[in-house]
Description:
The chain is an all-alpha fold and 109 residues long. The protein is built from six helices and no strands.
Amino acid sequence: xxxxxxxxxxxxxxxxxxxxxxxxxxxxxxxxxxxxxxxxxxxxxxxxxxxxxxxxxxxxxxxxxxxxxxxxxxxxxxxxxxxxxxxxxxxxxxxxxxxxxxxxxxxxx
Length: 109
């Protein structure tokens, strides 16, 4: 599995009140997602599971991860499931371990 990338600055910028900064960050996330999904999902999972990361970036990581794994519409849910099944087992294991690690961390708010 490729090493995760630090996405904290991008996730924080994606929540900025500055429209230009937010739009640029959203575009970066979109491109990262489209161009290297395995590293993207690993990086997002790592962000969520790291208690020293900013609360706002971890919250955004959780939302992004949720939207990568499930959907309300059945057709979209099947697409997401197929993409998950196709992922390298090491990446899936990393995401699972990161999610489980998140359950043991305390909220900082």
